[in-house]
């Protein structure tokens, strides 16, 4: 069976955002997995232009300890 | 001229006057390079997402400044940050075109809000105007037109 794929739209394009700021922690967290990895474009639906911006924003935020590099699950 | 921003994390246990001293030193370095400090934004004490130098908390400060792109000021600031033991992390970056565009948009919006009533009057009186205000006229005209239509309908 072919599953119907819902077409995903870039969330940044919808809100008409020019710039993704690395200081807005809550916005960035939506594009991270539980482990803290960047969610790929084909999953989140972000357009190429915004994914590039998002990636740099996330990397900057990680460097300044705003969001974690890895969330470790202690066992 | 290019606009840069330095965000840095200072140990949260450092006294406020010491933070001021750091800021003053940085500002003096910027002004030495013929730059101007645009904004100092203290985010305050925040919990770090991960430990840095075995510390859980940090005091965040963002320093926005404008300087000629040909100077090596970012490098100088890097030396300063590395030299200072109280600075745990720092990040200096230049505002890219997207950020600048967003800033221009924001500024325009605030200007429109403040001078909305006056600009409308001006556009009515003066049909010929310089290019910059002409663009504003267009946008304001577009914004006005739906309102007028609704009023007519009512």
Provide an overview of this structure.
The complex is a heterodimer of chains A (75) and B (154). In chain A, 39% of the residues lie in helices and 0% in strands. By secondary structure, chain A is mainly α. Chain A is built from 4 helices and no strands. Chain A has one domain: Irregular (30s Ribosomal Protein S18). The model of chain A has no long low-confidence stretch (mean pLDDT 86). Chain A has helices at residues 11-14, 25-29, 41-44, 48-63. The N and C termini of chain A lie far apart (39 Å). With 154 residues, chain B is an alpha+beta fold. Chain B folds into 2 domains: 2-96, 2-Layer Sandwich (Alpha-Beta Plaits); 113-143, no CATH class. In chain B, 51% of the residues lie in helices and 31% in strands. Chain B has helices spanning 16-32, 73-83, 97-114, 116-125, 131-153, and strands at residues 2-11, 36-52, 55-67, 87-94. A 4-stranded antiparallel sheet of chain B has the order 2-3-1-4. In chain B, a hairpin with a 2-residue loop joins strand 2 and strand 3. The radius of gyration of chain B is 22 Å and the shape is globular. The model of chain B is unreliable at 144-154 (pLDDT under 50). The interface between A and B is medium-sized, with 16 and 17 residues.
């Amino acid at each position: 069976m072919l599953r119907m794929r819902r077409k995903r739209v870039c969330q940044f394009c919808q809100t008409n955002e020019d710039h993704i700021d690395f200081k807005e922690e809550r916005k960035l967290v939506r594009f991270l997995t539980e482990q803290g990895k960047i969610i790929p474009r084909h999953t989140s639906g972000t357009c190429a232009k915004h994914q590039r911006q998002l990636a740099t924003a996330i990397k900057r935020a990680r460097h300044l300890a705003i969001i974690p590099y890895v969330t470790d699950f202690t066992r | 001229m290019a606009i840069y921003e330095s965000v840095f994390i200072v140990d949260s246990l450092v006294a406020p006057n010491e933070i001021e001293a750091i800021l003053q030193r940085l500002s003096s370095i910027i002004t030495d390079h013929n730059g101007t400090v645009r904004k100092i934004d203290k985010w305050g004490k925040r919990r770090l997402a991960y430990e840095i130098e075995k510390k859980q908390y940090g005091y965040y400060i963002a320093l926005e400044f404008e300087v000629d792109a040909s100077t090596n000021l970012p490098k100088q600031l890097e030396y300063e940050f590395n030299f200072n033991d109280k600075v745990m992390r720092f990040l200096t970056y230049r505002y890219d075109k997207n950020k600048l565009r967003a800033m221009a948009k924001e500024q325009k919006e605030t200007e429109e809000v403040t001078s909305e009533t006056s600009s409308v009057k001006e556009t009515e009186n003066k049909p010929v105007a310089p290019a910059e205000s002409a663009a504003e006229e267009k946008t304001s005209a577009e914004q006005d037109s739906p309102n007028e239509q609704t009023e007519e309908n009512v």
